[in-house]
Design a protein that fits this description.
Elements: E1 6-12, E2 17-25, E3 28-32, E4 40-42, E5 47-54, E6 57-64, E7 73-79, E8 84-88, E9 90-97, E10 100-107, E11 122-123, E12 127-131, E13 139-140, H1 145-152, H2 157-164, H3 173-183
Antiparallel strand pairs: 1-2, 1-5, 2-3, 3-4, 5-6, 6-7, 7-8, 8-12, 9-10, 9-11, 12-13
């Protein structure tokens, strides 16, 4: 019996799109027109986005060029506005073994868990990237969090204050970007 894949729309680089069924694994998009068909593999050379649709929700994933990775990576678009926020879908399991810390990748729901041990504490160290208007590459906002916030969000003193008093931290980046898009950032559009 073949696995059931989710309903999707894939968006090609030539601005066309197709509806069908698919999934995302290892920075590749797997797609088929009908559930009975075989999956075909696609990447950023042909496709720029995949949207999972159904149940009244849309999950948007896009291939994103960033300042951190050589090739575009598929990331979930989790906030749209003056600043786009992307999340690289991963979590890190941190295990302390004899004073040594091992890092093991724990995949998200798009893939299986490599180590699904409930005794391992999961530290959610997610990779977030922001894309500013007129920037081709997304910027890793977690790395050097405070200095990058001061650099890229200097037009919003309220946000800087909330970072300084630890209302916003690298663990609350989505809330920070929502705040910015709702209350700041209008100057970014005045070029």
């Amino acid at each position: 019996m073949k696995a059931q894949h989710r309903e999707v729309i894939i968006f090609f680089n030539d601005s066309t799109s197709l509806e069908g069924f698919g999934e995302v694994r290892n920075d590749k998009i797997y797609f088929k027109l009908e559930q009975k068909d075989e999956l075909t593999e696609w990447d950023y050379n042909s496709i720029y986005a995949i949207h999972f649709v159904g149940y009244g929700f849309i999950e948007k994933y896009e291939y994103v060029s960033s300042d951190k990775y050589r090739k575009p990576r598929i990331m979930e678009l989790i906030e749209e506005g003056n600043v786009l926020l992307y999340e690289l879908p991963r979590e890190i399991i941190i295990t302390n073994i004899v004073s040594r810390i091992n890092y093991e990748v724990r995949k998200t729901s798009n893939d299986f868990d490599i180590n699904n041990n409930p005794n391992n504490p999961v530290k959610s160290i997610k990779e977030y990237f922001i894309k500013l208007p007129n920037n081709e590459k997304a910027i890793d906002i977690v790395f050097s969090f405070k200095s990058r916030v001061e650099r890229y969000f200097s037009d919003c003193p309220e946000l800087i204050e909330k970072v300084n008093n630890k209302t916003f931290t690298k663990y609350t980046i989505p809330e920070m970007i929502i705040f910015y898009n709702d209350y700041c950032g209008n100057d970014l559009l005045k070029d």
